[in-house]
């Protein structure tokens, strides 16, 4: 009789930035299939999701991946439900209107690796600063590259877990890195970002590090951290029309505040109009423009206006479920039917 470790992972009720939570369930003769993951429960009063007098919340398994660090283990992503089976208010995944997986998302997750002893990014000396930005981006060599072993191990874990992991690179600031994930389907894309973050955070326990997802952890002339959202639907992938692209981009303008509201806490410290960002108070779009709110990739234009868009505003600590949900809602308001028929 075999026993399997199922790591049930969910998001807590902290606002405005949720945290990952997890606990292990032991199952006998488990099939490895999502349909055989039972519902479970947890103490919502300890995660700001329920009152102590009626504290049970339910965990509904929605995605499963092999756990690359455990023998006979799986990572199980969950939605949080109320005790009566309705969606908990913290359950942003349930708000995504993409049941047919028409929307494809590629997220670029930036983050800082922090030394737990110094509480500074890797490469930052105590009481001072490393050399200025310029030599860290996509660098090689011990003088400018910090944390490669850790980042490589995280990439291996994500690939072994079956995530659609697409790449890694050191970013513009010392100790700042990025990984990219892509999925056909907004819910799946969100699931995979959260599982990748879980693996990243768990790995820090072995290194004496922690991950800082704050969009501007180092003040001054240092780049902040974002989670650029590359997205498309069938219209964007096939329309072949500059006018359609501009119509969809314009649909974002009147709901700028609604997007910023779900794009991550402290994002005003990052979206200043400097360091490859547009001001949080402005909205713009442009071809190959990394200083715009939405960038139209040059590849999309070269392919005859068939491709995707990149919303550069989401912060590194943003919830991919909330971000995808809001983007989909806005794109669906764009009146492009007449332009594509």
From TrEMBL:
Residues 88-341 form the GS catalytic domain. It comes from the Bacteria. It is an enzyme of class 6 (ligase). Residues 4-85 form the GS beta-grasp domain. One of its GO terms (cellular component) is cytoplasm. GO terms for biological process: glutamine biosynthetic process. PROSITE patterns: GLNA_ATP (PS00181), GS_BETA_GRASP (PS51986), GS_CATALYTIC (PS51987). Belongs to the glutamine synthetase family. Homooctamer and homotetramer. This is glutamine synthetase. It comes from Aquimarina muelleri. The lineage of its organism: Bacteria, Pseudomonadati, Bacteroidota, Flavobacteriia, Flavobacteriales. The gene is glnII.
């Amino acid at each position: 009789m075999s026993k399997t470790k199922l790591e049930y992972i969910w998001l807590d009720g902290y606002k405005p930035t949720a945290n990952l939570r997890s606990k292990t369930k032991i199952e006998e003769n488990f099939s490895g299939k999502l349909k055989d993951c039972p519902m479970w429960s947890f103490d919502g009063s300890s995660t700001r999701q329920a009152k102590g007098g009626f504290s049970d919340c339910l965990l509904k398994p929605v995605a499963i991946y092999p756990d690359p660090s455990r023998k006979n283990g799986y990572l199980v992503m969950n939605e949080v439900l109320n005790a009566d089976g309705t969606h908990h208010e913290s359950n942003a995944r349930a708000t995504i209107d993409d049941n047919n997986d028409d929307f494809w998302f590629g997220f670029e997750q930036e983050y800082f690796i922090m030394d737990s002893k110094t509480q500074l990014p890797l490469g930052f000396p105590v009481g001072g600063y490393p050399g200025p930005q310029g030599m860290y981006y996509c660098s090689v060599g011990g003088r400018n590259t910090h944390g490669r072993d850790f980042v490589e191990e995280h990439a291996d874990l994500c690939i072994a877990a079956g995530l659609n992991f697409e790449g890694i690179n050191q970013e513009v600031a010392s100790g700042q890195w990025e990984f990219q994930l892509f999925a056909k389907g907004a819910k799946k894309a969100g699931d995979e970002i959260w599982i990748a973050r879980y693996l990243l955070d768990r790995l820090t326990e072995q290194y004496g590090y922690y991950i800082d997802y704050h969009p501007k952890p180092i003040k001054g002339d240092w780049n902040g951290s974002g989670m650029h959202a590359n997205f498309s639907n069938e219209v964007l992938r096939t329309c072949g029309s500059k006018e359609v692209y501009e119509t969809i981009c314009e649909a974002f303008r009147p709901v700028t505040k609604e997007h910023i509201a779900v794009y991550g806490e402290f994002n005003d410290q990052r979206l200043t109009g400097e360091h490859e960002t547009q001001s949080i108070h402005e909205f713009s779009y442009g071809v190959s423009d990394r200083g715009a709110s939405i960038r139209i990739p040059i590849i999309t234009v070269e392919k005859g206006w068939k491709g995707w868009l990149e919303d550069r505003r989401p912060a590194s600590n943003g919830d991919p479920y909330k971000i995808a949900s809001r983007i989909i809602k806005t794109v669906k308001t764009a009146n492009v039917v007449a332009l594509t028929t």
